[in-house]
């Protein structure tokens, strides 16, 4: 697929993603947690979380909606960027932080992150590919190893707000 194709996918979905984020934030998480992605090759009941992190260069706070899974009590997100040849900015930013914020529906937490390795990574990838089948095509379209990020909650925090 490459960066150009991945960019086209992101541009096509940009308005949808902004609307999804606004709905999730404006509702305090009562809407936007579960979304039908069957029209994109996903599942009807696809779960989404919000991640909140600081820009490593700008210091600005960003909030991003992402598909997530739960493996052994840890939240799993995938840095797919639609199969682009470069990692998403959110991934580069969280790698520079020790903890990030994560919101699932109406509950938010500070979380520590890690990346699974070896056999665990393979098992987590299989699980996430089952949750959202397009991940398989994304991985095939790029030579980069698509990162998986596992989040372990540390403590509860306030749900995210549109103005923060």
- Residue share in helix: 25-40%
Strand content: 25-35%
Largest sheet: 8 strands, antiparallel
The CATH architecture classification is Roll
Helix run count: 4
Question: Can you offer a commentary on this structure?
Answer:
This protein is α+β, with helices and mostly antiparallel strands. The chain has one domain: Pnp Oxidase, Chain A (Roll). The chain is built from four helices and eight strands, in the order αβββββαββααβ. Strands 1, 2, 3, 4, 5, 6, 7 and 8 form an eight-stranded antiparallel β-sheet that branches. A hairpin with a 2-residue loop joins β4 and β5. The chain is globular and about 40 Å long. 30% of the residues are buried. GO terms for molecular function: coenzyme F420 binding; oxidoreductase activity. Belongs to the F420H(2)-dependent quinone reductase family. This is Nitroreductase. Keywords: Oxidoreductase. It catalyses: oxidized coenzyme F420-(gamma-L-Glu)(n) + a quinol + H(+) = reduced coenzyme F420-(gamma-L-Glu)(n) + a quinone.
